[in-house]
Specification:
Length: 148
């Protein structure tokens, strides 16, 4: 019986497992929202709007580093560009330049990995870490995100 069930499940066409473009867009929006929350905490501390708390700064930076390890490029499925769906800000250039897009995400991953150590030692250190993180975000958004 187990063999029959396993055989039947393997016979299901792979397109049934393919990610839906709407789901991918929703997941990307959620991912970007989480990044925004953590960046906002660091930005607030850097500006003095939030009292500097080294543990909280490190927690935000650790969350960014953890998020950067998610395979975000896998959420950019065919049919989920701004040309295909009005809910998407992803420019079609992503699918035309997948290697560059992946390299830019790797740059964000590198910046995020350095952030937990960079935000320690006082409020004054957060600005430089944010510049590095923000620069990595901007590198990708300049080429691959629809302007606001």
């Amino acid at each position: 019986m187990k063999t029959a069930i396993l055989s039947a499940s393997l016979a299901i066409p792979l397109p049934l497992f393919a990610q839906d473009a709407d789901d991918a867009i929703e997941a990307r929006h959620g991912y970007m929202k989480m990044l925004s929350i953590e960046m906002g905490k660091l930005s607030g501390m850097a500006k003095g709007e939030i009292e500097y708390d080294e543990a909280a700064a490190q927690a935000a930076a650790n969350n960014l580093a953890a998020l950067s390890n998610y395979d975000l490029p896998s959420l950019f499925v065919e049919g989920s560009s701004s040309d295909d769906n009005g809910d998407s800000d992803a420019l079609p250039a992503i699918w035309q330049n997948t290697e560059d897009f992946g390299a830019k995400f790797a740059g964000f991953r590198e910046a995020a990995a350095a952030a937990p150590a960079a935000v320690t030692g006082g409020q004054g250190n957060i600005g430089a870490a944010l510049q590095t993180l923000g620069g990595a975000c901007k590198d990708c958004h300049d080429d691959y995100r629809k302007p606001d």
